[in-house]
């Protein structure tokens, strides 16, 4: 069932014990939204935790580390934030599957999988939506809560540069600043700090990129062997999908990454006027117009050929 914000707020008031689930490959939005929701529920006197995710990025770990649990109790209710499809849910014991009550999300191409769903595709980040629900529950934004909220909204908007940024996003950022939280430091860590190898891997990808439609589409690829040879950590490959879109003349950047033999993930970033979600729909995926993902089974050569064919057939 699809819910309004008010219905979601009322539903959350009903139970007392919550465990919040994030998505696989957790980003700043799912991590920040989960921590924010957890802190908000605790402010109301409820018991709340964020469920452990083995893939937490070191950058965002401080937000969830004090809140996380690896246990789901008999009387717990599960919530999930920023999860566009069931297979994207963090791994958790399947016997608890029926405890999932509510999903809060902002993915336009999302597939419904929870009994109650609040999905607002026009909202830039899931964090903004969680914040609005908490306000309806009379939760007050604290300095502690401003950190995960700001993380969610700033990372999903590329520090308020992407086309999804709205006046509401900026008003939410202003509310975060008004708590007195040290947000400039988060900006430095998230948006102005990179590893040395992350720059080297970008140079490598650029040298080996395939350009389509006179360079409007840039396809970068990396096999497992290449990744191992460069000894890359997840921090080195953070935000790798998007860098090519920043190159002058590029409208859509396609990043192909082999994560298992003959299994390739597809990450697409597009400028306004282009539709990454529609493109990824051809590869069993989806997401937002500006940022989407999909998958391919086969060799890297075959994946590049499939992308070329999809581009030639029209976007
Ligand atoms: Mn998000």
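-> sequence recovered:
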């Amino acid at each position: 069932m699809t819910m309004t914000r008010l219905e979601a707020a009322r539903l959350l008031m009903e139970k007392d014990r919550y465990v919040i689930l994030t998505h696989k490959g957790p980003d700043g939005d799912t991590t920040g939204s989960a921590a924010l929701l957890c802190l908000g529920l605790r402010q109301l006197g409820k018991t709340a935790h964020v469920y452990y995710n083995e893939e937490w990025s070191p950058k965002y770990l401080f937000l969830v580390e004090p809140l996380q649990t690896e246990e789901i109790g008999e009387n717990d209710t599960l919530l999930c934030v920023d999860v566009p499809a069931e297979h994207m849910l963090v791994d958790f014991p399947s016997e608890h599957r029926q405890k999932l009550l509510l999903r809060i999300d902002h993915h336009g191409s999302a597939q419904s999988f929870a009994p109650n769903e609040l999905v607002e595709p026009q909202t830039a980040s899931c964090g903004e939506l969680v914040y609005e629900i908490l306000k309806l529950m009379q939760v007050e934004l604290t300095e502690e809560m401003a950190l995960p909220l700001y993380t969610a909204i700033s990372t999903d908007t590329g520090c308020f540069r992407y086309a999804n940024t709205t006046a509401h996003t900026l008003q939410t950022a202003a509310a975060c600043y008004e708590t007195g939280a040290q947000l400039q430091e988060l900006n430095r860590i998230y948006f102005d700090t990179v590893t040395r190898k992350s720059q080297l891997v970008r140079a490598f990808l650029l040298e080996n990129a395939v350009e389509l439609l006179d360079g409007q589409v840039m396809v970068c690829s990396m096999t497992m062997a290449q990744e191992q040879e460069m000894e890359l950590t997840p921090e080195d490959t953070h935000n790798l999908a998007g860098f090519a879109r920043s190159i002058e003349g590029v409208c859509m950047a396609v990043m192909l990454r082999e994560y298992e033999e003959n299994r390739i993930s597809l990450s697409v970033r597009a400028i306004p006027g282009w539709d990454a979600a529609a493109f990824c729909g051809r590869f069993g995926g989806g997401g937002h117009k500006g940022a989407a993902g999909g998958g391919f089974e086969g060799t890297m050569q075959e994946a590049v050929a499939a992308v070329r064919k999809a581009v030639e057939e029209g976007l």
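DSSP finds eleven helices and twelve strands in the chain.
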